[in-house]
Amino acid sequence: MANIGRYNTLTVLEKSDHGLYLDGGPHDKILMPTRYVTPDMSIGSEVEVFVYNDSEDRLVATTEKPYAQAGEFAYLEVISVHPTAGAFLDWGLSKDLLLPYREQGNTHFTEGDGAIVAVYVDEYTNRVVASTRLHNHLPAEKPPYEVGDAVHVLIYGDSPLGFKSIIDKRYRGLLYHQETSDQLEPGDQFTGYIKKVHNDGKIDLRRDPSGYGRVDGVSQIILEKLEAAGGAMPFNDKSTPEAIRATFDTSKKAFKQGLGRLYKQRRILITENGIELVNE
């Protein structure tokens, strides 16, 4: 059975002048246009495709990869705005994704804006569409994470406690303000780490790996950067978070912890002008 708005492995039933017809189960035959057909595809073979509605509202299959499938969240660019339908988003396919006005809340989108949306299949039209009402599309199951797992993080908002986040395009989490010194904005994306999964499914995040492993890792990065720079760099605990992130790819808090560990080990000197390797 073919699932609309998602990747499917379907069997080739027959060839035509327009492409290949695939077994869509209850959806009958689904056309994969000729431009996606490769020489190794033949009758009886299985192909991995994404199924969605074309501009004439027919189900079609494509080997193109959307930035998100139904059941996932993504940060997408507004390509155009229709006066009555809504905003059209670039989601990686030849046909743009519609964000209907009814799903935009109080936000007024214009061309070039970024939109953080849930991708889903409308139950009335069977079309794949987008929504900014993220809370309506969160999964019910408990997230399958362990403390310390690395995850993809998409920032979608701010709160008094921290930054609201989407994890791995599917789950909601919170990155507490004390976990990062960066000023994050909606649309920012990076690798984060699971700090805690609560019994109700809520997730706390870290910007960097937790515990001593984080300090050891940052310390090693600092040493490698120092060696590559000839033994001295103009960085210390007075450096800006932005400069530290750009050079060492870590937060200022983790950087300071890494410096402290190296200093206690007598592997670096901290001066007014920066840091230096200790000659052994």
TrEMBL record:
> Which residues are in the Conserved virulence factor B first S1 domain?
4-63
Check the record and name the InterPro entries matching this protein: CvfB_fam (IPR014464), CvfB_S1_st (IPR039566), CvfB_WH (IPR040764), NA-bd_OB-fold (IPR012340), WH-like_DNA-bd_sf (IPR036388)
So which domain of life are we looking at?
Bacteria
Q: Which residues form the Conserved virulence factor B-like winged helix domain?
A: 221-277
Family statement drawn from the similarity comment of this UniProt entry: Belongs to the CvfB family.
Entry's PANTHER family? CONSERVED VIRULENCE FACTOR B (PTHR37296:SF1)
This protein's name = S1-like domain-containing RNA-binding protein
Please give the organism.
Coraliomargarita algicola
